[in-house]
C-alpha cells in the first residue's frame, strides 16, 4: 500500500485538543455521510488538489517529530472520514511508527475497513450521532447498523477509545434519544476512557453560506449548549467524565 495516494486537505500543526500532548492533525478529504450539521462540509467531497504518497505526508509531519514526541503527543487522523481512505491511512500510520496515532471516525465503513483502523490506531474517538435508525438515516443520509456493529468491534478490541456525541438542538439532544445511547455505551464497554458531549457549533452555518449551500432550516443560528437535564443524565451514567 506504499503507493496508494491520499487526499488530504490540511496538516494542522500544534493542536492541543485532539488527543494527548501536542499533535499534528491530518484532515482527510471525503466522507460518505451527509450530516445536516457537518462542521467540515468542505471536506465531504474529494477535491482535485494535490494528493500525497504516505512517505510524502509522513515527511511533512516528521518535521515536528521532536515536539510531538517530547510532549507525549503524536498525530491525529481526522476528516472527512478516515475509513473512506483506509489503505492510505494504514500506510501513513506505518510510515509514522512509532508515533502515537489517534483517529476521529464516524465508524461508517465496512467491518474489514474498521478492523484495519483498529490495527494501527492507538486511540479512537468514535462518534455516536443518533441511535434511532430512521432519524439517523434522515439526518445523516445513511443508516447506523454498520456503525453500531463497528462500535461493538471496538469494544471487543481492547483498544482505548472515547465516545463523542454531537448534540444538535431539536434534532438529537432530547433525553429520550440519548438514554438508548447511554445504555449502548455502558454495555460491555471494553477500554472506554471517556464520553464527551459536543454542543452544536454555528461555525458550520457560516461555512455552508460561504460555499453557497442552503442552510437546513432545522439548524439553529447560534452555538448550542448542553441542556442541564442531559448533563445530569450523563454525569450519573459516567461519573468519571467531565460534562
Ligand atoms: S461524518 Fe463528520 S465529516 Fe462526515 S458528514 Fe458527518 S460530520 Fe461531516
Brief characterization of the structure:
The chain is α/β, with parallel strands linked by helices. It has nine helices and eight strands. It has one domain (6-237): Aldolase class I (TIM Barrel), CATH 3.20.20.
Helix content range of the residues, please? Answer: 25-40%
CATH architecture identity: Alpha-Beta Barrel
What is the makeup of the main sheet?
Answer: 8 strands, mixed
Overall shape: it is globular
| CATH class annotation | Alpha Beta
* Count of the separate structural domains: 1
The order of strands across the largest sheet is 3-1-2-4-5-6-7-8
Annotated CATH homologous superfamily: Aldolase class I
Tell me what the structure shows.
Helices cover 36% and strands 20% of the residues. With 243 residues, the chain is an alpha/beta fold. It has one domain: Aldolase class I (TIM Barrel), CATH 3.20.20.70. It has an eight-stranded mixed β-sheet. α7 links the parallel β7 (161-167) and β8. The chain is globular, with a radius of gyration of 18 Å. The N and C termini lie far apart (41 Å). It binds iron/sulfur cluster (SF4). Iron/sulfur cluster binds next to loops. Iron/sulfur cluster is lined by residues 31, 33-35, 38-40, 43-44, 79-81, 106.
Attribute tags:
243 residues, alpha/beta, TIM Barrel, eight-stranded mixed sheet, globular, binds iron/sulfur cluster
Strand and helix layout:
Layout: E1 6-15, E2 23-28, E3 51-52, H1 54-62, H2 65-70, E4 74-78, H3 86-96, E5 100-105, H4 111-120, E6 123-127, H5 133-140, H6 145-157, E7 161-167, H7 175-186, E8 192-199, H8 203-210, H9 228-237
Parallel strand pairs: 2-4, 4-5, 5-6, 6-7, 7-8
Antiparallel strand pairs: 1-2, 1-3
The structure holds iron/sulfur cluster (SF4).
The site of iron/sulfur cluster (SF4) has 13 residues, from loops.
Amino acid at each position: 500500500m506504499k503507493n496508494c495516494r491520499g487526499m488530504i486537505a490540511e496538516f494542522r500543526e500544534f493542536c492541543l485538543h485532539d488527543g494527548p500532548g501536542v499533535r499534528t492533525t491530518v484532515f482527510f478529504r471525503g466522507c460518505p455521510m451527509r450530516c445536516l450539521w457537518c462542521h467540515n462540509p468542505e471536506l465531504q467531497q474529494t477535491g482535485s488538489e494535490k494528493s500525497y504518497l504516505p512517505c510524502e505526508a509522513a515527511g511533512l509531519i516528521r518535521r515536528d517529530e521532536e515536539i510531538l514526541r517530547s510532549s507525549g503527543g503524536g498525530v491525529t487522523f481526522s476528516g472527512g472520514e478516515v475509513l473512506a481512505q483506509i489503505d492510505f491511512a494504514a500506510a501513513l500510520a506505518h510510515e509514522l511508527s512509532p508515533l502515537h496515532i489517534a483517529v476521529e471516525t464516524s465508524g461508517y465503513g465496512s467491518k474489514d475497513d474498521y478492523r484495519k483502523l483498529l490495527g494501527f490506531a492507538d486511540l479512537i474517538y468514535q462518534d455516536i450521532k443518533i441511535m434511532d435508525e430512521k432519524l439517523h438515516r434522515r439526518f445523516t443520509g445513511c443508516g447506523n447498523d454498520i456503525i453500531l456493529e463497528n462500535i461493538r468491534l471496538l469494544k471487543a478490541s481492547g483498544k482505548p477509545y472515547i465516545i463523542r456525541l454531537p448534540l444538535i438542538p431539536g434534532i438529537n439532544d432530547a433525553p429520550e434519544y440519548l438514554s438508548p445511547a447511554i445504555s449502548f455505551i455502558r454495555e460491555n464497554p471494553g477500554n472506554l476512557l471517556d464520553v464527551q458531549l459536543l454542543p452544536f457549533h454555528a461555525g458550520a452555518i457560516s461555512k455552508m453560506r460561504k460555499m453557497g449551500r442552503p442552510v437546513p432550516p432545522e439548524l439553529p443560528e447560534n452555538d448550542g449548549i448542553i441542556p442541564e437535564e442531559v448533563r445530569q443524565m450523563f454525569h450519573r451514567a459516567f461519573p468519571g467524565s467531565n460534562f
